[in-house]
Each structure stands twice: as C-alpha cells, then as structure tokens.
Amino acid sequence: MAANRDPSTLSNYSAWRTRHTTASFKIDFEEKALKGSVILQLESQTDKESNEIILDSRYVDISTIRINSTEPKWELKEYNAPLGAPLHIYVPGGVAKGELIDVAIDLETTSKCTALQWLTPAQTSNKKHPYMFSQCQAINARSIFPCQDTPDVKSTFTFKLTSSLPVVASGVPVGDHSATPGEE
C-alpha cells in the first residue's frame, strides 16, 4: 500500500478510496446548521489489509455510522490543529481489494464549522432573508461532513438539499431533479 502524499489529510485514502458521495441535508437557517446524512461509497485498495477507515473531520456532530446497514465500532480521535479530529471506523477483517462498501454517517454541522458562512437578513442586499454559502477550500470540507478531504481523491456526487428558502447549488445536473422554491 502506497503512503499518502498529502500532508493536509488525516485520512487513509491509500487504503480506501471514495468513489461516490451522496449527501442529504436540511438547511436550518435558525440554528445555522446542516442536518442530515452522507453516504460515502468507498473502494478497498488493499486485500483485507486495512481494518479501519480513517476520515477527515472537524467540529462535526456525528450521531450514527453504518457500513452496509451494520453499525460498526467508531471513534473520533483527539483534535489535531489545524487538521481536525480523525474519524476511525473499524472494519474487522477488512474487505477484498476492489470491493465497494457504503459508509453512512448521520450528522449535524456545528457553530465551529469553517466551511459555512451564515449571514443575517441585515447583512444581505435585500435585508429580507438570511443567506448561507460554503467555501470548502483548502481543508474545510471536513467541517461539513467526514470525508477524504484531499485533492488526491475525487468522486462523483449526488446532493439533496431541503430548505424553507430557495437554494442554488453548483454542479452539472445529471438525470431527473426537481426543485420547489419556498417549500421543504
């Protein structure tokens, strides 16, 4: 197994590689938080050699983790500034090289999230509605959800955002999608 090249990640992306990310979040403007879940489809890069998945995480409130519908043992290790706290998810026995697993994480962002900026209505041009935007560079994606927060790992993604206010999200839409402004 090759060593990680990126010193800005705590993840073990040389052992597991994210292939697809599915995120489903409710935007809570009152609490200034995203609440929901993320599913990381990970591919084993080893033949049953890695017994744990390590993801980058920073100030995320994690409630539940599942691997293919089973709740594994997991641990959020000590905070390591400025990189965050590595999330260790245990995979007893590992899996075969090339095998895909789904890691589902239920979570909520916190007030210490460095990737989300929340503006009050008074701070916006029309002074009527709150506003939120994200900036995940350089290593801030890990404060929205645990991930392999490195440019060495790229994956396709599917996002579902629910909000009481209209939402604009970037990315090239593929397939069917629907939006109903003003409704959750």
From TrEMBL:
<dbReference type="Pfam" id="PF17900">
    <property type="entry name" value="Peptidase_M1_N"/>
</dbReference>
<dbReference type="GO" id="GO:0005829">
    <property type="term" value="C:cytosol"/>
</dbReference>
<dbReference type="InterPro" id="IPR045357">
    <property type="entry name" value="Aminopeptidase_N-like_N"/>
</dbReference>
<feature type="domain" description="Aminopeptidase N-like N-terminal">
    <location>
        <begin position="23"/>
        <end position="179"/>
    </location>
</feature>
<dbReference type="GO" id="GO:0004177">
    <property type="term" value="F:aminopeptidase activity"/>
</dbReference>
<dbReference type="GO" id="GO:0004301">
    <property type="term" value="F:epoxide hydrolase activity"/>
</dbReference>
<dbReference type="InterPro" id="IPR042097">
    <property type="entry name" value="Aminopeptidase_N-like_N_sf"/>
</dbReference>
<dbReference type="InterPro" id="IPR034015">
    <property type="entry name" value="M1_LTA4H"/>
</dbReference>
<protein>
    <recommendedName>
        <fullName>Aminopeptidase N-like N-terminal domain-containing protein</fullName>
    </recommendedName>
</protein>
